[in-house]
Automatic annotation (TrEMBL):
Source species, domain of life: Eukaryota
Listed SUPFAM superfamilies: alpha/beta-Hydrolases (SSF53474)
PANTHER family: ALPHA_BETA-HYDROLASES SUPERFAMILY PROTEIN, HYDROLASE
UniProt protein name: Alpha/beta-hydrolase
């Protein structure tokens, strides 16, 4: 089945710039999709960028691209994992033939105090998210090999979409919607699942969260990615792609 790749919080499809070609070369029909309100999606004439609106947009993408009776697989990294969980839970088997979680957030619901801020204050708050110092700090936290990967180029690519007009309003809309609520949906997903986790993730503790996914998902397997931080698809793209291809071409995924 075709594979949809969902990026993390306030990121873009460019997050899959290294693994996308690896998957395509191995014959996987791959779609790196921007989540509504992030990346380079439409920002004008959209009434809501809430968590629900994001999932509705993804469901519409699936329907328009693959049809109502075709199956697909979905992979989500970090907060994109929450979106992938919600999409897989909404469409379930046989439509969602497989779920891949990459250092995914699945057991933390909402966005915290930001959901309660008045819009003017929330807009000031989200403005910090596009600052160069914060983006550099996020890069430092994301990688195991910081010298090789936490570069100025990585910061520029990760921040590029934030400079679009309408970005801050879209972000505030999402924050005030309360964010994703995936935790209660994890155990309901019957699709076969692959959990991939960077062994040296400094953002989400794999010993806690990766194992919890395996415990709660009815049909899941776990694979650790060595010498890797929070973003295996960027830091170890060949190894990560190989694990994904093995999963997608196995008897589990039909």
């Amino acid at each position: 089945p075709p594979l949809i790749l969902l990026h993390g919080f306030d990121s873009s499809c460019l997050e899959y710039r290294r693994i996308g070609p690896e998957l395509a070369e191995q014959g996987i029909d791959t779609y790196a999709v921007d989540i509504l309100g992030w990346g380079f999606t439409q920002l004008d004439d959209v009434t809501s960028f809430s968590a629900d609106a994001k999932i509705q947009a993804l469901k519409s993408f699936v329907k328009s691209k693959f049809g109502v009776h075709s199956s697909f697989c979905v992979a989500g990294a970090s907060l994109g994992g929450a979106a992938a969980i919600e999409l897989a839970a909404a469409l379930s088997m046989p439509t969602c033939a497989g779920l891949i979680l990459i250092d995914a957030q699945g057991f933390v619901d909402g966005v915290g105090p930001m959901a309660l801020l008045p819009k003017p204050l929330a807009k000031i708050g989200v403005g910090v998210l596009r600052s160069i110092p914060l983006r550099n700090m996020a890069n430092q936290m994301s990688y195991y090999d910081k010298e090789k990967f936490a570069t100025d180029d990585a910061q520029v690519i990760g921040r590029l979409h934030c400079l679009r007009e309408g970005w801050s309003d879209a972000m505030v809309s999402f924050m005030q919607s309360g964010g994703f609520s995936p935790s209660s949906k994890v155990a309901t997903i019957t699709s076969p699942a692959l959990v991939l986790w960077g062994r040296d993730d400094g953002i989400l503790d794999g010993d806690e969260f990766a194992n919890k996914f395996v415990e709660e998902l009815p049909n899941a397997e776990l694979e650790w990615i060595a010498e890797c931080g929070h973003v295996p698809h960027l830091e170890q793209p060949k190894v990560t792609a190989s694990a994904i291809v093995s999963f997608l071409t196995s008897d589990k995924v039909t």
